[in-house]
Amino acid sequence: MVLGFNVAGAVRTTAVRERPPVCGVGAQSSRFRGDTMVSVARTRAFLAVPPLRSTRLPKPTRQTWLHMQTSTMQKARYAEKAPRGVHKEAAVGAVKSEALQRKNIQRPVMVGVAADSGAGKSTFLRRVMRMFGSDIPKGHTPQGELITVICLDDWHNRDRQGRKEDNITALDENCQNFDLMAEQLEALKNGFDIMKPIYNHETGRIDPPELVSPNHIVVVEGLHPMYDERVRKLLDFSVYLDLDDEVKIAWKIQRDMAERGHTLEAILASIEARKPDFERFILPQRQYADAVIQVKPTELIPEDKERKILKVRLLQREGVQGFKTAYLFDEGSTIEWIPCGRRLTCSYPGIKFHYGPESFYGADFSTIEVDGEFAKLEELVYIESHLSNTGTKYYGELTQLMLAAQNTPGAYNGTALFQTIIALKIREIYEQLTGRKVDPVVRS
After folding, report:
1. pLDDT 10s digits, 322-335
2. Which residues contact 149 (CB under 8 A, 6 or more apart)?
3. How many CB atoms lie within 10 A of CB 180?
4. Residue 49 within a domain
5. Domain Phosphoribulokinase/uridine kinase, which positions (predicted)?
6. pTM over 0.70, yes/no
């Protein structure tokens, strides 16, 4: 297995210095430190100043650094909109970003990923990022050579204490500075740098802003990427991760008890407290999604209580530019398929596929679903041979990607299968919209 990537015409750069991971990829942000600044080379290019000489310069203070970064920027129109002045330092570029020329970016492709907390965004985003490079840049906002992932929590207009005082949840529309979010994301898509706020998940505070430049692909993820119409119109493709309530509770209990030390009572109380705002502000966004991954309890085991076996559905909107819907056997038909036999090993309770058209919020969708678990991932190539329009570049690429991530959550069920297909489709959409080509990360 060889790991590598390349975009025709793009310039290779050295790896990004390691930083704490992004909030949506399972990380916690940290307050401003000198070692989280952009590289000297990048700052020099940004400011168009002569190369530094050997003379050792004093380490800049945060105020000096911020002034340097914003010297070609202007204050965002909605920087003062948030309560308590928490976004007053937000800015947008006054001139086009030097990153457009340095990285040979024709047009940033913007993808939205919406889901509630604990719905699998982190795992899915890792699959997407690996599709465009072998390493995931770490940092509050990872900015790789080809892809940047932005957590929309950064536009929270209240810190944790402020939400508590105002008795408001992070899901509520009134907890977001949508005006600033739309202004800055539009600037980024149009080729301008931004000084973006930071919401620190570790401290619950709003930290000083960071510089984010345009990139080939910009993923905006979080609770509200499709809630505001202005932001929604910026998206070239959108994904909604949709967990059934029973599965969500099981997953959240497993994660929060094992990884965060929360009690069962606290977890259930948190889920119940968030439910009204989830149903009002988050769930309705799925009607705007181009792809929806639904995770439900299995129908193969009557009254299953463990929720370890899942039925997963991939709903794909018809007619989206650059997006060819994947299908099983015969496009547009309705098919039930049990693949267990000589070519595919199945353990209890087996595996069942379904494919067919359906109406979702009044729109035409094509749906593939799989109920059950795969016993041997290397045998997935048999399943892959009956799937079409998956976005693969060679026979077996889907199987190779699944094998490369066999230790990730959901690796043996439809969760990983459909997340991987959508990651492949995002690569395909990028190529369709830009005319560029991206080499496979895992080669045959």
Report:
1. 999 999 999 999 99
2. 22, 24, 25, 125, 129, 141, 142, 219, 221
3. 25
4. no
5. 111-301
6. yes
